[in-house]
Protein backbone atom coordinates (compact mmCIF):
# COMPACT_ATOMS: atom_id res chain seq x y z
CA UNK A 1 0.00 0.00 0.00
CA UNK A 2 1.35 3.44 -0.84
CA UNK A 3 1.14 5.87 2.06
CA UNK A 4 -0.58 5.49 5.40
CA UNK A 5 -4.10 4.08 5.45
CA UNK A 6 -6.11 4.82 8.59
CA UNK A 7 -8.98 2.38 9.08
CA UNK A 8 -9.84 3.57 12.58
CA UNK A 9 -12.76 5.72 11.38
CA UNK A 10 -14.55 2.57 10.29
CA UNK A 11 -14.63 1.17 13.84
CA UNK A 12 -17.66 3.33 14.53
CA UNK A 13 -20.18 3.08 11.67
CA UNK A 14 -22.37 6.08 10.86
CA UNK A 15 -25.90 6.21 12.20
CA UNK A 16 -28.28 4.38 9.93
CA UNK A 17 -25.56 2.35 8.21
CA UNK A 18 -26.98 -0.05 5.67
CA UNK A 19 -27.46 -3.71 6.48
CA UNK A 20 -25.65 -6.64 4.87
CA UNK A 21 -25.70 -6.77 1.10
CA UNK A 22 -26.22 -10.53 1.11
CA UNK A 23 -23.91 -13.51 0.78
CA UNK A 24 -21.85 -15.41 3.32
CA UNK A 25 -18.85 -13.08 2.97
CA UNK A 26 -20.64 -9.74 2.52
CA UNK A 27 -19.36 -6.92 4.71
CA UNK A 28 -20.66 -3.38 5.10
CA UNK A 29 -19.83 -0.34 7.24
CA UNK A 30 -21.68 -1.80 10.23
CA UNK A 31 -19.91 -5.17 10.19
CA UNK A 32 -16.48 -4.02 8.99
CA UNK A 33 -14.87 -3.87 12.43
CA UNK A 34 -15.92 -7.37 13.48
CA UNK A 35 -15.51 -9.16 10.15
CA UNK A 36 -12.35 -7.43 8.95
CA UNK A 37 -10.41 -5.58 11.65
CA UNK A 38 -10.95 -8.04 14.50
CA UNK A 39 -10.88 -11.11 12.31
CA UNK A 40 -7.59 -10.01 10.71
CA UNK A 41 -5.86 -10.43 14.07
CA UNK A 42 -6.44 -14.18 13.65
CA UNK A 43 -5.93 -14.69 9.91
CA UNK A 44 -5.44 -12.38 6.93
CA UNK A 45 -8.73 -11.06 5.57
CA UNK A 46 -8.97 -10.49 1.83
CA UNK A 47 -11.25 -7.51 1.21
CA UNK A 48 -12.73 -7.48 -2.29
CA UNK A 49 -14.40 -4.22 -3.33
CA UNK A 50 -16.63 -4.76 -6.32
CA UNK A 51 -19.68 -3.46 -8.17
CA UNK A 52 -22.69 -5.40 -9.40
CA UNK A 53 -22.41 -3.29 -12.55
CA UNK A 54 -18.94 -4.64 -13.29
CA UNK A 55 -19.05 -8.22 -14.61
CA UNK A 56 -15.29 -8.56 -14.23
CA UNK A 57 -15.41 -7.63 -10.55
CA UNK A 58 -18.35 -9.98 -9.90
CA UNK A 59 -16.41 -12.81 -11.54
CA UNK A 60 -13.35 -12.03 -9.39
CA UNK A 61 -15.50 -12.19 -6.25
CA UNK A 62 -16.83 -15.60 -7.34
CA UNK A 63 -13.26 -16.80 -7.84
CA UNK A 64 -12.27 -15.63 -4.35
CA UNK A 65 -15.36 -17.25 -2.83
CA UNK A 66 -14.33 -20.54 -4.39
CA UNK A 67 -10.71 -20.18 -3.30
CA UNK A 68 -11.52 -19.31 0.32
CA UNK A 69 -13.56 -22.50 0.46
CA UNK A 70 -10.41 -24.41 -0.48
CA UNK A 71 -8.16 -22.49 1.94
CA UNK A 72 -9.01 -24.47 5.07
CA UNK A 73 -9.19 -21.34 7.22
CA UNK A 74 -5.76 -19.99 6.22
CA UNK A 75 -7.43 -16.73 5.23
CA UNK A 76 -10.88 -15.20 5.27
CA UNK A 77 -12.84 -13.22 2.71
CA UNK A 78 -14.84 -9.98 2.98
CA UNK A 79 -16.77 -8.82 -0.08
CA UNK A 80 -17.78 -5.16 -0.14
CA UNK A 81 -20.18 -3.62 -2.62
CA UNK A 82 -18.32 -0.34 -3.12
CA UNK A 83 -21.23 1.89 -4.16
CA UNK A 84 -23.20 1.01 -1.03
CA UNK A 85 -20.19 1.38 1.29
CA UNK A 86 -18.32 4.46 0.12
CA UNK A 87 -16.62 5.06 3.50
CA UNK A 88 -14.84 1.70 3.20
CA UNK A 89 -13.76 2.46 -0.37
CA UNK A 90 -12.53 5.91 0.68
CA UNK A 91 -10.63 4.52 3.68
CA UNK A 92 -8.66 2.26 1.35
CA UNK A 93 -8.19 5.01 -1.25
CA UNK A 94 -9.81 2.85 -3.92
CA UNK A 95 -9.26 4.26 -7.41
CA UNK A 96 -10.98 1.57 -9.45
CA UNK A 97 -13.20 -1.51 -9.28
CA UNK A 98 -12.43 -4.25 -8.55
CA UNK A 99 -9.80 -3.64 -5.88
CA UNK A 100 -8.59 -6.39 -3.56
CA UNK A 101 -6.76 -5.64 -0.31
CA UNK A 102 -5.19 -8.03 2.19
CA UNK A 103 -5.68 -6.86 5.79
CA UNK A 104 -3.60 -8.43 8.58
CA UNK A 105 -3.44 -7.36 12.20
CA UNK A 106 -5.91 -4.57 11.44
CA UNK A 107 -3.71 -2.98 8.76
CA UNK A 108 -3.58 -3.16 4.94
CA UNK A 109 -0.74 -5.42 3.83
CA UNK A 110 -0.97 -5.69 0.04
CA UNK A 111 -3.41 -4.97 -2.76
CA UNK A 112 -4.12 -5.26 -6.44
CA UNK A 113 -6.57 -3.56 -8.79
CA UNK A 114 -8.44 -4.94 -11.74
CA UNK A 115 -9.70 -8.39 -12.66
CA UNK A 116 -6.92 -10.99 -12.60
CA UNK A 117 -6.81 -14.56 -13.89
CA UNK A 118 -7.05 -17.25 -11.24
CA UNK A 119 -3.38 -18.37 -11.38
CA UNK A 120 -2.21 -14.83 -10.57
CA UNK A 121 -4.79 -14.54 -7.77
CA UNK A 122 -3.56 -17.81 -6.28
CA UNK A 123 0.05 -16.62 -6.48
CA UNK A 124 -0.85 -13.32 -4.77
CA UNK A 125 -2.75 -15.12 -2.01
CA UNK A 126 0.19 -17.44 -1.43
CA UNK A 127 2.51 -14.45 -1.04
CA UNK A 128 0.14 -12.88 1.49
CA UNK A 129 -0.03 -16.07 3.56
CA UNK A 130 3.77 -16.38 3.52
CA UNK A 131 4.17 -12.75 4.57
CA UNK A 132 2.10 -13.14 7.74
CA UNK A 133 3.14 -16.65 8.71
CA UNK A 134 3.80 -16.77 12.46
CA UNK A 135 3.27 -13.02 12.86
CA UNK A 136 -0.39 -12.82 13.91
CA UNK A 137 -1.50 -13.33 17.54
CA UNK A 138 -3.69 -16.22 16.39
CA UNK A 139 -6.92 -15.17 17.97
CA UNK A 140 -5.76 -13.20 20.96
CA UNK A 141 -5.68 -9.50 20.40
CA UNK A 142 -2.71 -7.68 21.83
CA UNK A 143 -3.60 -5.96 25.10
CA UNK A 144 -4.45 -2.32 24.69
CA UNK A 145 -2.33 0.28 26.42
CA UNK A 146 -4.11 1.98 29.32
CA UNK A 147 -5.95 5.12 28.30
CA UNK A 148 -4.34 8.44 29.15
CA UNK A 149 -6.68 10.06 31.72
CA UNK A 150 -5.95 13.49 30.24
CA UNK A 151 -7.32 12.42 26.88
CA UNK A 152 -10.24 10.69 28.55
CA UNK A 153 -11.12 13.98 30.26
CA UNK A 154 -10.92 15.89 26.99
CA UNK A 155 -13.02 13.34 25.12
CA UNK A 156 -15.58 13.25 27.93
CA UNK A 157 -15.94 17.03 27.76
CA UNK A 158 -16.37 16.81 24.01
CA UNK A 159 -19.05 14.12 24.32
CA UNK A 160 -20.92 16.34 26.77
CA UNK A 161 -20.84 19.24 24.33
CA UNK A 162 -18.35 21.22 26.38
CA UNK A 163 -16.12 22.38 23.54
CA UNK A 164 -14.37 24.99 25.69
CA UNK A 165 -13.56 22.39 28.34
CA UNK A 166 -12.25 19.94 25.74
CA UNK A 167 -10.11 22.68 24.16
CA UNK A 168 -8.67 23.61 27.56
CA UNK A 169 -7.87 19.96 28.28
CA UNK A 170 -5.98 19.52 25.01
CA UNK A 171 -4.17 22.82 25.51
CA UNK A 172 -3.04 21.63 28.96
CA UNK A 173 -1.59 18.45 27.45
CA UNK A 174 0.31 20.47 24.83
CA UNK A 175 1.58 22.89 27.48
CA UNK A 176 3.01 19.94 29.42
CA UNK A 177 4.19 18.07 26.31
CA UNK A 178 4.82 20.48 23.40
CA UNK A 179 5.64 17.55 21.14
CA UNK A 180 2.39 15.61 21.72
CA UNK A 181 1.15 15.28 18.14
CA UNK A 182 -2.02 13.43 19.15
CA UNK A 183 -3.16 16.35 21.29
CA UNK A 184 -2.21 18.87 18.60
CA UNK A 185 -4.19 16.99 15.99
CA UNK A 186 -7.21 16.68 18.30
CA UNK A 187 -7.08 20.40 19.08
CA UNK A 188 -6.99 21.29 15.37
CA UNK A 189 -10.01 19.09 14.74
CA UNK A 190 -11.84 20.55 17.72
CA UNK A 191 -11.23 24.16 16.70
CA UNK A 192 -12.42 23.41 13.19
CA UNK A 193 -15.57 21.78 14.56
CA UNK A 194 -16.27 24.71 16.87
CA UNK A 195 -15.96 27.15 13.97
CA UNK A 196 -17.77 25.18 11.30
CA UNK A 197 -20.69 23.51 13.01
CA UNK A 198 -22.81 26.67 13.10
CA UNK A 199 -22.38 27.60 9.43
CA UNK A 200 -25.55 26.97 7.37
CA UNK A 201 -25.54 24.83 4.23
CA UNK A 202 -26.65 27.93 2.30
CA UNK A 203 -23.10 29.29 2.66
CA UNK A 204 -22.14 27.34 -0.46
CA UNK A 205 -24.80 29.01 -2.57
CA UNK A 206 -23.85 32.40 -1.15
CA UNK A 207 -20.20 31.91 -2.09
CA UNK A 208 -21.07 30.63 -5.56
CA UNK A 209 -23.21 33.71 -6.17
CA UNK A 210 -20.46 36.11 -5.10
CA UNK A 211 -16.98 34.69 -5.90
CA UNK A 212 -15.31 37.94 -4.75
CA UNK A 213 -16.64 37.54 -1.19
CA UNK A 214 -13.67 36.08 0.71
CA UNK A 215 -15.55 35.47 3.96
CA UNK A 216 -18.28 33.62 2.07
CA UNK A 217 -15.64 31.42 0.40
CA UNK A 218 -14.15 30.55 3.80
CA UNK A 219 -17.57 29.61 5.20
CA UNK A 220 -18.44 27.56 2.13
CA UNK A 221 -15.16 25.66 2.37
CA UNK A 222 -15.90 24.82 6.00
CA UNK A 223 -19.34 23.48 5.04
CA UNK A 224 -17.77 21.33 2.33
CA UNK A 225 -15.28 19.98 4.87
CA UNK A 226 -18.13 19.15 7.26
CA UNK A 227 -19.80 17.33 4.37
CA UNK A 228 -16.60 15.28 3.88
CA UNK A 229 -15.74 16.99 0.58
CA UNK A 230 -12.19 18.16 1.30
CA UNK A 231 -11.14 18.31 -2.34
CA UNK A 232 -14.04 20.65 -3.14
CA UNK A 233 -13.09 22.84 -0.16
CA UNK A 234 -9.44 22.94 -1.24
CA UNK A 235 -10.31 23.80 -4.85
CA UNK A 236 -12.64 26.58 -3.71
CA UNK A 237 -9.96 28.24 -1.60
CA UNK A 238 -7.23 27.76 -4.19
CA UNK A 239 -9.52 29.54 -6.65
CA UNK A 240 -9.91 32.35 -4.10
CA UNK A 241 -6.12 32.58 -3.76
CA UNK A 242 -5.86 33.10 -7.51
CA UNK A 243 -8.45 35.90 -7.44
CA UNK A 244 -7.16 37.80 -4.41
CA UNK A 245 -4.13 39.78 -3.30
CA UNK A 246 -2.69 41.35 -0.19
CA UNK A 247 -4.45 40.70 3.12
CA UNK A 248 -7.30 38.80 1.49
CA UNK A 249 -4.91 36.37 -0.17
CA UNK A 250 -3.06 35.88 3.13
CA UNK A 251 -6.35 35.21 4.90
CA UNK A 252 -7.41 32.56 2.40
CA UNK A 253 -3.98 30.93 2.27
CA UNK A 254 -3.82 30.72 6.08
CA UNK A 255 -7.23 29.04 6.23
CA UNK A 256 -6.26 26.60 3.50
CA UNK A 257 -3.10 25.59 5.37
CA UNK A 258 -5.21 25.03 8.50
CA UNK A 259 -7.50 22.70 6.57
CA UNK A 260 -4.52 20.77 5.19
CA UNK A 261 -3.42 20.12 8.78
CA UNK A 262 -6.66 18.23 9.50
CA UNK A 263 -5.36 15.33 7.39
CA UNK A 264 -2.38 13.03 7.07
CA UNK A 265 -0.01 15.09 4.92
CA UNK A 266 0.78 12.02 2.81
CA UNK A 267 -2.83 11.77 1.58
CA UNK A 268 -2.74 12.10 -2.22
CA UNK A 269 -5.49 14.73 -2.29
CA UNK A 270 -3.55 16.86 0.21
CA UNK A 271 -0.32 16.52 -1.80
CA UNK A 272 -2.19 17.47 -4.98
CA UNK A 273 -3.83 20.48 -3.32
CA UNK A 274 -0.49 21.73 -1.99
CA UNK A 275 0.91 21.61 -5.52
CA UNK A 276 -2.07 23.57 -6.84
CA UNK A 277 -1.61 26.15 -4.08
CA UNK A 278 2.06 26.57 -4.94
CA UNK A 279 1.15 27.09 -8.60
CA UNK A 280 -1.52 29.64 -7.64
CA UNK A 281 0.93 31.60 -5.51
CA UNK A 282 3.86 31.61 -7.90
What does this structure look like?
- The protein has about 280 residues and is α+β, with helices and mostly antiparallel strands.
- It has three domains: about 10-130, Glutaredoxin, CATH 3.40.30; about 145-195, no CATH class; about 200-280, Serine Threonine Protein Phosphatase 5, Tetratricopeptide repeat (Alpha Horseshoe).
- The protein is about 50% helix and about 10% strand.
- It is built from twelve helices and four strands; from the N terminus they run αβαβαββααααααααα.
- The protein has helices at about 30-40, 55-70, 85-90, 120-130, 150-160, 165-175, 180-195, 205-210, 215-225, 230-245, 245-260, 270-280, and strands at about 45-50, 75-80, 100-105, 105-115.
- It has a four-stranded mixed sheet with strand order 2-1-3-4, sandwiched between helices.
- Strand 1 (about 45-50), helix 2 and strand 2 (about 75-80) form a beta-alpha-beta unit.
- The protein is globular.
- Mean pLDDT is about 85; it is low at about 15-20.
Amino acid sequence: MSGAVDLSSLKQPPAGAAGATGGDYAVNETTFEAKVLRRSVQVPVIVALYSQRSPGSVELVRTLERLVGEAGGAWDLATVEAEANMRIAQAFGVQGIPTVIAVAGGQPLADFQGAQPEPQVRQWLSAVIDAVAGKLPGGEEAPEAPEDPRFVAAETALEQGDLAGAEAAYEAIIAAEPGNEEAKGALRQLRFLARAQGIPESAIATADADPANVDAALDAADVEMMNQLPEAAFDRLIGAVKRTAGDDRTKVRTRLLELFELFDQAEPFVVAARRKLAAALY
